[in-house]
Amino acid sequence: MIEFNQVEKKYANGTIALQNINLKIEQGEFVAVIGLSGAGKSTLIRCINRMHDITGGRLSVDDVDVAKLRGKQIRRFRRRIGMIFQSFNLVTRTTVIKNVLVSFVPDLSWWRKVTGVFTTEQKLKALEALDKVGILDKAYVRVDQLSGGQQQRVALARTLAQNPDIILADEPIASLDPVTAKMVMDDFKRINKDMSISVIMNIHHVEVALEYADRIIGIRKGEVVFDGESNRVTKQILDEIYGGQVEEMKSSAEESSANVR
Ligand SMILES: Nc1ncnc2c1ncn2[C@@H]1O[C@H](COP(=O)(O)OP(=O)(O)OP(=O)(O)O)[C@@H](O)[C@H]1O
């Protein structure tokens, strides 16, 4: 379980990005974090794996106080938490399978690190992860020959290969067209349900968030203003989260999906 207890995050320049955050996220939940740009969504999910240090309160993952982890402990802790970014973060000039195998580098003996020789078991695990996201046939294709959606699936496979308990996803579909975005969201949903991996996703597309996530956390100016099941989210709640800008956002989203078509 991920637990935020009166968490605060103040950046060095004095910006208070999060305050009074109290949340409990059980293993296996699919949570979407929504809110306006600058509301604190990225900060919230990046505190979970210590990409950002909190400045107040307590944040724990399975009773481990995240702020107290040091050196090797942080690296070990992060092995349990996959991270997916909008920009995929892949090495595009090499093959898909090599990108997935990267997740095993921390486990390699020093000579394997130097020679870049992976074990047969690791190669099989990498192929298995690619199969789980439906791109096994692309294993030996160079990443720069894949579409954006396929690249995001490679990133997802790389994360799956590390066998995580939690996947943090920071705007994973922001640079994808609506059809591809849906396929990637289907992957997240399947992984969440079949493997009981918690998914905590920061997402701008409200309709997608409501369709896929079981739980919505609405953030406004660094504070949680809504926390509940997706099917409880009303227009009034969205107005509270987005400060009455929902209609405006919907029409600009419709415009951009019309452009894609
Ligand atoms: N490294 C940083 N240093 C100082 N302030 C920061 C830093 N990162 C973010 N902030 C500020 O913290 C607040 C929350 O930012 P954050 O990126 O978490 O918002 P967000 O909801 O994810 O926004 P977006 O949807 O645009 O990504 C904003 O006011 C932002 O300007």
Blueprint (SSEs and pairs):
Elements lengths: L1 E9 L5 E10 L4 E5 L6 H8 L7 E6 L2 E2 L5 H9 L1 E5 L10 H6 L8 H6 L4 H13 L15 H14 L4 E5 L7 H18 L2 E5 L3 H7 L2 E6 L2 E7 L5 H8 L3 H15 L1
Parallel strand pairs: 3-8, 3-9, 6-7, 7-8
Antiparallel strand pairs: 1-2, 1-4, 4-5, 9-10
Helix pairs in contact: 5-6, 6-7
The protein binds adenosine-5'-triphosphate.
Adenosine-5'-triphosphate binds next to helix 1.
Keywords: ATP-binding, Cell membrane, Membrane, Nucleotide-binding, Phosphonate transport, Translocase, Transport
Protein name: Phosphonate ABC transporter ATP-binding protein
GO cellular component, one term: membrane
Examine the secondary-structure arrangement and name the CATH architecture of the largest domain: 3-Layer(aba) Sandwich
- Which blocks of ≥5 consecutive residues have pLDDT under 50? 256-261
Task: Work out the count of structural domains.
Answer: 2
Using the coordinates shown, work out and report the CATH topology of the largest domain.
Rossmann fold
DSSP strand content: 15-25%
CATH structural class of the largest domain: Alpha Beta
Distance between the termini: 41 Å
The helix/strand order is EEEHEEHEHHHHEHEHEEHH
What is the assigned CATH homologous superfamily of the largest domain?
P-loop containing nucleotide triphosphate hydrolases
Please identify the structural class as seen in this structure.
alpha/beta
Inertia-based shape: globular
Tell me the radius of gyration: 19 Å
The helix content is 25-40%
Protein name: Phosphonate ABC transporter ATP-binding protein
GO molecular function, one term: ABC-type phosphonate transporter activity
Pfam families: ABC_tran
Keywords: ATP-binding, Cell membrane, Membrane, Nucleotide-binding, Phosphonate transport, Translocase, Transport
